[in-house]
Amino acid sequence: MLLSARPGDVLVHELDRRHTPTFGRDTIRKFASDASEMKKMASRDFEDLLQCAIPVFDALLPEPHNTNVLTLLCTCARWHALAKLRMHTDETLNLLDTATVTLGKQLRHFQRHTCVAFNTKELKREAERRQRQQSRNLVQHGTGEASTSTSQTTRRPKTFNLQTYKLHALGDYSTSIRNFGTTDSYSTEPGELEHRTSKASHHTVRSSTKKLPRRLKLVSTVGKSQNNPVNIPLFLQMHLGDPATKDFLPKLKRFLLAKIKDILTTEDGLSHTNSSTAVTVPGSTTPTNANSEGQILIKADRMYRHNLMRLNYTTYDVRRAQDIINPSTSHLNNTLISTLAVLGVYHVNVTYIGPGIIRYHSHRIDFLWVRWYQYVDEGSSWCPSLDRVCFPPMAEPDAFGFVDPNDVLRCCHVIPQFSQHLRHLDGKGVSRCAQDQLDWKFYYINRFVDRDMFMRYQWGLGVGHTYTHTSTNRDSDADTTSAIFEDLEEEEVNLDPDQGLLSDSALESDLDEDCNEDYDSDDDAILDYEN
Asked: Where is the composition biased (Basic residues) (predicted)?
C-alpha cells in the first residue's frame, strides 16, 4: 500500500527510518534496520510490530486513509491485549466480545474504503520468488528451460482478503477462553522462552543466601554504594547557565525538608501542622516556623549518583514484577499521575538542624532528578490516537523537579511522534544536563506495550483502582448488614412460644460470633497491592 501511495520507495524508507525505542528487558526488542522486509521474524517480533505500529504509520498515508489505518491498528492492538490476558474475569471477557465485534467492523470498513483506493500489487521479491518457482517446476517436469533473468517479471495485483481461517477464528477466542482457560495455558511461547529462566537464575542462585528474605513491601531499590560522589557546588558551577540547574539547590532542599519531616514524624514523634513547612514538638503549643532552607544540612555537600533503580510493582494478575530505570538509555520514562523522564538517580545524607530537633542524626534520602512531560491531548480506548505528551519550555519554573522513588508507579514506553520531526533541526540543544539535542516535538505514550500497562488504562481493572469500587462495596456491605438484622428479627418473631424467647445477651453473643466469622473470612481474601 505504501508503494502504491507514492512512486518509488520513499514511504517504505521513511517507515524503516522511524526507529522505536526498546522497553523492558525483552518486552520490546530492537527492531531491524529494514523492518519493512519482515525477514527472519518470530511470532514475538510480529507482536512487537503491532504494539508499536501506531506511531510508526502515523501520517504516512493521506486522509481519510491515515485515520482508517490508525483506527484499525488501535483496534487490533486492543483486541490482542485482551485476548492475551493471563487472568480473565467476566468483565474482561465481555470487553473481548465487544472488541471482536468492533474489529470485524473495522476490517470490513478498511477493505471497502481504504483498500479499493490503492492499486496494490505483490512485492518485487514475491514476484521474483514466484518466477523462480515456476522455472524450477518447468525444469523438473522437462517442459522447458529455466529463465535466468527476472527483469521481465510482472507483479500481479494483490488485494486484501477477509476470507481466511485466521480472521474467521478470531470470533472463537472468547468462547475458547471460557471453556479451556487463558491462552497462555496452551500456548507454545512460554516453553520456547523457558531457556532464559535457567540462564537468568544462574548468577542469582550462585550468590544467594540460604534463607531468602521477604521483600514484598520494598517498592523501589537503589544501590547502597557511595562510589560515585558528586560535589553539589562544583556540579552547579560546571553547569552554570544550564536551564536544568536553575534553582537546583533551593528545589532540592525544599524536597529534602519535606521528606525528612516525614522521617522524623515516624521516628522521633514530631508532628506536622497545617503549614507544609512547620514542625511541632510533642508538649509544645506554638508551632515553629521552618520556612528557612537552612534547617537541613547535606552532609559534605555531596549527592551520590547511581546508574540503576529497580522498581517493584504488582501486575494485574497479582504477580510480582520489576522495572529497571537507567537514565543513560531510553529506559528513563516513568509514570506517576503524570509522566516524567529521569535525568539522574541520587541519594544524599541529610541532617535536620531546625527547631524541634531531638538529636542530630543523618538520614539517607533517595531521590530522582526528573524532567516533566506535559499532556497535549489524551486518547480514549477506541481513539486511533494514543496519549500525546511534550516537554514544556525549560524556562518554566516547574520544568524540572525531584521525585521520591517510592512514588513512581511504573516505567512507561514513550515513542516519538515521527511525523512532527525534531524540536532542534540543527541538532544543537539548550541543556547539556537534559540532553535535549534529540528531543522530538511530541511523544506518544504506548498503552499497549504489555498486558499490565494496558490494564492500567482500563477503568476499574488495574492495580490500585480501588476508588472505582468504593461506592459499590459500601452499598453491598450495607445491604448485607441489613439482611442479617432482618433475618435475625424474623427468627426472633417466628420463634415457637413453647421454646421460649432468646435473651438479649444470647442474641448479642450469636451476632458477635457471626461477625467474627465474617471478618475472619474477609481477612483471608485480602490482597496487599503496591503501586
From this structure: 198-212
Phi, psi of 25 (to 5 degrees): -70, -40
Number of C-alpha atoms within 13 angstroms, CB side, residue 422? Answer: 11
Residue 92's CB is within 10 A of a number of other CB atoms, namely 18
- Residue 439 C-alpha cell reads as 528531543
Residue 314 forms beta bridges with which residues?
320
How many of the other CB atoms lie within 10 Å of CB of 442? Answer: 18
**CA geometry: angle 156, 157, 163, nearest 5 deg:** 120
C-alpha cell at 72: 484499525
> Torsions phi, psi of 280, nearest 5?
-125, 150
- Span 189-200, pLDDT tens digits: 777 667 767 666
C-alpha–C-alpha distance, residues 400 and 342, integer Å: 10
- Residue 439, SS3? coil
* Mean pLDDT computed over every residue of the chain: 80
Cα distance between residue 291 and residue 310, in whole Å: 34
Residue 163 dihedral angles phi and psi, to the nearest 5° = -90, 65
Long-range interactions of 284-291: CB distance < 8 A, separation 24+:
284/356, 288/354, 288/355, 288/356, 289/355, 290/257, 290/354, 290/355, 290/356
Place of cell 495485483: 157
- Cα 250 to Cα 127, 237, 245, 430: the distances in Å are 67, 15, 10, 22
Q: How far is CA 276 from the centre of its chain?
A: 32
State the first-to-last Cα distance of the chain, in angstroms, to the nearest integer: 43
H or E stretch covering 70: helix 65-83
Question: In the numeric block, which cell numbers belong to residue 415?
Answer: 515513542
416 contacts: CB under 8 Å, gap ≥ 6: 55, 440, 442, 443, 444
Q: Which of 319, 228, 277 is nearest to 527 (CA)?
A: 319
Query: What does 218-230 look like in DSSP terms, one character per residue?
Result: --EEE-----SEE
What's the whole-number mean pLDDT along residues 286-294?
51
Question: pLDDT at position 242, please?
Answer: 95
Predicted confidence (pLDDT) per residue in 247-284, tens digit: 999 999 999 999 999 998 887 665 544 344 444 443 43
Element (H, E) at 304: strand 302-306
Q: 31-45, 334-348, 379-393, 490-504: which has the minimum mean pLDDT?
A: 490-504
Residue 404 in contact with residue 43, Cβ under 8 Å? no
In angstroms, the CA 467 to CA 463 distance is 11
Q: How many CB atoms lie within 10 A of CB 37?
A: 13
User: For 323-365, how does the pLDDT look when each residue is reduced to its tens digit (9 = 90+)?
Assistant: 999 998 888 788 776 789 999 999 999 999 988 777 788 999 9
pLDDT in tens, 65-92: 999 999 999 999 999 999 999 999 999 9
Residue 64 CA to residue 69 CA, distance in Å, equals 9
- Tell me: cis bond preceding 64? Omega within 30 of 0 counts: yes
On whether the CB atoms of residues 160 and 14 are closer than 8 A, the answer is no
In 10 A of CB 227, how many CB atoms? 8
* Residue 113, C-alpha cell as written in the block: 474504503
